Amino acid sequence: MSSLTPLDALIARFQEQTPIRASSLIVTLYGDAIEPHGGTVWLGSLIRLLEPMGINERLIRTSIFRLTKEDWLTAEKVGRRSYYSLTAVGRRRFDQALKRVYSSNLPAWDGSWCMVLLTQLSAAQRKSVREELEWQGFGALSPTLLACPRSDRADVNAALGDLGVLEDTIVFATRPEPEATSAALRTQVKETWNIEALSAHYSEFIQLFRPLWQALRERAELDPEECFLARMLLIHEYRKLLLRDPQLPDELLPADWEGRAARQLCRNIYRLIYAQAEKWLGVTMETADGPLPDAGESFYRRFGGLRDT
Fold first, then answer.
1. Does 216 score more than 80 pLDDT?
2. With 60 as the cut, is the pLDDT of residue 250 above it?
3. How far is CA 156 from CA 93, 136, 221, 268, in A?
4. Residue 56 domain-assigned?
5. For the domain that residue 157 is a member of, what is the CATH number?
6. Residue 159 · residue 218 · CB < 8 Å
7. What is the pLDDT of residue 200?
8. Fewer CB atoms inside 10 Å of the end CB: C or N, the chain?
9. Out of 23-32, 39-48, 77-86, 98-107, which region has the weakest mean confidence (pLDDT)?
């Protein structure tokens, strides 16, 4: 039990999942906390970090094995110890999420769309492409046509290349249209991306984490381990939301879009607790070379800048 009641409630909520999503939490841990410090950590450190979450050693080892088989992680043996890092594929997957999670503001939209036509693919290939490009914010306008108002062509091509369908998929962009926000388009967006359901998920996130924000602000001194656990759960839940969120331009979203308030809340909590969480990581995580390396400069650019806050 921690000294923060809202944190205990969040941990209990995680433990009540059936089954416990240990693998997903480990991916969050790597992307948020381990990658900034070199990307590799001893398995024993992972076990110690995740123990307060109610995840036992056996489940952690099973999850690590599964993530290795699924090409998220790769292992290096040094003596009797195993050290794990994200694979290139795993890093690319999380990097796409990182752009969304830690960005300060989304760039202005010029009214253009990226379109992916799947008519030359088999049904199984279409399914794989849809699932992969949903990570990048694409929605299905029809069974064979995907669309996204914000996309990185290099990321799209990389995903299609990994699936072996780059040469059989047609990718094109529409011309910028400054006035591309008609009522018909807004209705199409609402239907394609299920905006109302996503807004409800953001509302739930705010209800879950606002009590934590209030409790943390009242503390004269923050506990490093509690800050680490709070940070991990915060980014874990927010990352899951952003995997569903196509990051549509403001012009296509409702005026009272809950995603804006959720982002501000996440940013506020992270900036408040990150430094103490880093202290806990420093005394808990271990690499093959010994102490944990300092975080890279890119870490401190998260959420528009972490230092001097």
1. yes
2. yes
3. 12, 8, 45, 31
4. no
5. 3.30.70
6. no
7. 94
8. N
9. 98-107
Sign of the alpha-carbon torsion through 220, 222, 226, 231: positive
Q: Are 44 and 3 in contact (CB under 8 A)?
A: no
pLDDT bucket at 180, cuts 50 / 70 / 90: low
Give yes or no for residue 104 having a pLDDT over 90. Answer: no
Burial 125-142 (b: 16+ CB within 10 A, else e): bbebbbebbbebbbbbee
pLDDT band at 130 (very low <50, low <70, confident <90, very high): very high
Q: With beta carbons less than 8 A apart as the criterion, state whether 286 and 41 touch.
A: yes
Structural domain includes residue 163: yes
What SS3 class is residue 83? strand
In the chain, alpha helices (H): 5-15, 22-29, 43-50, 57-69, 88-101, 123-134, 153-162, 183-192, 195-217, 224-244, 258-284
Alpha-carbon span 214 to 209, nearest angstrom: 9
Whether the CB-CB separation of 209 and 237 falls below 8 Å is answered with: yes
Residue 205: is its pLDDT beyond 90?
yes
Residue 220 CB neighbours (<10 A):
4
Assigned domain for 237 exists: no
Residue with tokens 């990352």: 239
Contacts for 73-82 with beta carbons within 8 Å, 24 or more apart?
73/30, 76/40, 76/288, 78/288, 81/42, 81/43, 81/44, 81/288, 82/42, 82/43
**Which residue range is the domain that position 164 belongs to?**
114-175
The residue among 92, 101, 100, 143 whose CA lies nearest residue 122 is: 143
Instruction: Report the alpha-carbon angle 18-19-20, nearest 5.
Output: 100
SS3 category, 84: strand
